[in-house]
Amino acid sequence: MYNPSVAGGSANTEFGSRMYVIEVTGFGQGSNSGVTTSAVRRSGTTFIRVPYSRMNQEVQRISRLGGKIVNISPLNADSAAASSSNQSVSNSTMTQSAPAAKKPKPGADVPVNTYRPKTPFVGKCISNDSLLGEGGIGVVQHIKMDLRGGDPMLKYVEGQSIGIIADGENEKGKPHKIRLYSIASTGHGDDLDDNTVSLCVRQLTYEDPETKQEVKGVCSTFLCDLKPGDDVKITGPVGKEMLLPKEEDANIVMLGTGTGIAPFRAYLWRMFKEGERKLNPDYQFKGLAWLFFGIPTTANILYKEELEQIEAQYPDNFRWTNAISREQKNSEGGRMYIQHRVAEHAAELWNLIKDEKTHVYICGLRGMEGGIDEAIAAEAEKEGVVWSDYQRTLKKAHRWHVETY
Fold first, then answer.
1. Which among 105, 98, 104 has a CA at the least distance from the CA of 20?
2. Do 65 and 136 fall into the same domain?
3. Are 20 and 51 in contact (CB under 8 A)?
4. Which of 50, 140, 127 has its CA nearest to residue 89?
5. Lowest CB count within 10 Å: 161, 179, 324, 353, which one?
6. Which residues contact residue 304 at a Cβ distance below 8 angstroms, ignoring those fewer than 6 apart?
7. Residue 20's pLDDT band (boundaries 50, 70, 90)?
């Protein structure tokens, strides 16, 4: 997948104990309101202090009591330390502007920028195969490249990207700019020998607004036209936003369109591919992996046979939901897009998202985000939760990952 910009991990025990303040309206003022002594009332609003580890239970309790959540804010580190007893929190510690003590991003040991634009690694194309079925729209290729001979070796992990510099020069006589692509293989590579990297690339084509002629993207066309043995200038790897959590029992929700499936293919190989599981004895995936995939036609389902095989072998751990826009209709009779599938399964997804073991990954066209947020927000609102606020807590916990273009 082409990635014009690239920026993971799971909540640990320390994060789970971090204190948050939930701002609630609608609670009665009587003794039967169910509000604990850790709450402070002010002008019809109740502020409830709760550790992150108990956030889901408290949200459900508030909903049962008829309260409406209007904001969730983290206490700063100083306030949290000062409020460790069961005494009521003063209003001054609950200001929404209090800076949050951010959890360090995961990936400190992940390789980054082993090769840079001025000194790229020159690999070789091993294979270049179409990913489309008969009648598929456009050109989409799976391209495998040899990384042997690098000093140092170009290493990467699932969820990262590499840069490609197309051969030739631009109209100004300078080398073409780097284009970033999400890696579609595990860190061991498709051959499981640590010597390859693979990309999922759609050839970009568009109409020139002035000449009305078809224009082909420089880098995507270069990649899609590669022949075995051709040289490829590679930079990177880059990116830590889309890293998988290390926990084997995590739930992984993947929402992708088109070549946005690239990092998800890498995840699924790491989770379920027999050879990968043998190479990673300390990571035997036991959670739920749920892929929502948006494509225009059945012939455009990328890696279809691989997905079908995983679905057959691991029915209890892998779910796969397609949104085929030109063949399926949504509930209103229009084209079926990924946000419509999310809306159909919103209740299940919302319950998963409330589980601290769940990570959500979004990869593909940027326009998909709004519809996904809208569908989940509607479900969250049923429990009195403001989705935009709740989503911020997920991002701070590194459980909401987005890479769109």
1. 98
2. no
3. yes
4. 50
5. 324
6. 133
7. confident
Q: Which tens digit of pLDDT belongs to each residue from 184-214?
A: 999 999 999 999 999 999 999 988 888 888 9
Catalytic residue, chosen from 127, 327, 344, 405, is 405
- Report, as an integer, the average pLDDT of 11-28: 62
Statement to judge: residues 201 and 327 lie in one domain: no
Give, for 20, the enclosing helix (H) or strand (E). Answer: strand 19-25
Q: With bands split at pLDDT 50, 70 and 90, how would you rate the model's confidence at 13?
A: very low
What tens digit of pLDDT does each residue of 260-270 get? 999 999 999 99
Q: Based on the domain organization, do 229 and 326 belong to the same domain?
A: no
Q: At what angle do helices 262-272 and 304-313 cross, to 10 degrees?
A: 30
How far apart are alpha carbons 350 and 371 in whole angstroms? 15
Q: Are residues 81 and 145 in the same domain?
A: no
In this structure, what CATH number is given to the domain that contains residue 399?
Answer: 3.40.50.80
- Are residues 346 and 264 part of one domain? yes
Choosing from 182, 185, 198, 220, the catalytic residue is 182
Number of domains comprising the chain: 3
283 catalytic per annotation: no
pTM of the model: 0.77
Please report the DSSP string for 93-158 in residue order.
Answer: GG-TTSPP-PPPPS-TTS---SBBTTB-EEEEEEEEEE---TT-SS-EEEEEEE-TT-SS-----T
Type of residue found at 337: Y
- pLDDT value for 86: 36
Pick the catalytic residue: 52, 181, 303, 361? 181
* Domain span at 166: 121-238
Total residue count of the chain as it appears in this document: 405
CB 75 within 8 A of CB 83: yes
Query: Which entry of 158, 356, 379, 403 is annotated as an active-site residue?
Result: 403
Catalytic (active site) residue 363: yes
Q: Label residue 119 exposed, middle or buried (CB < 10 Å: 0-12, 13-18, 19+).
A: exposed
